[in-house]
Design a protein that fits this description.
61 residues, single chain, rod-shaped, mainly alpha
Length: 61
């Protein structure tokens, strides 16, 4: 077992760490995007409930 075999093991470890880090970054971006979409959807629904169609058609004095 020479230095080449030991270096190869280290390279495999670094590749595993890089792949794991990439997966974690992708998952983080997915969760943030999902949260933002849900927040926007909730705000739009709240806005629609506050302004119903009959409110716009009513005549105000």
């Amino acid at each position: 077992m020479g230095p080449r075999a030991r270096g190869s093991h280290m390279d495999e470890t670094m590749v595993g760490v890089a792949i794991g880090f990439s997966v974690m970054m992708f998952a983080t971006l997915f969760v943030v995007g999902h949260y933002r979409r849900e927040n926007l959807r909730r705000r739009m629904i709240d806005h629609m409930h506050g302004h119903r169609l009959y409110d716009f058609t009513r005549h105000r004095h």
